[in-house]
Amino acid sequence: MRVSATVISAALMVASAGLVGAQGSDSSDIAFYAKEDGAAAGRIADYVQTVRLAPKEPDIRPNRDVKEQANSELTQIIAYYDAAIRHDPQDDDAYFHRGIANFYAGDRSQALVDLGKASKLDPKYPYYPLWIDIIDRRANAASNLPQAIANLDMTKWPAPVIRLFLGETTPADVLAAADDPDANTKQGQICEANFYSGELALQQGAEDQAARLFTLAAAGCPRSFVEGPAASSELEALGGKR
Question: Whole domain around residue 51: which residue ranges?
Answer without folding.
Answer: 1-87
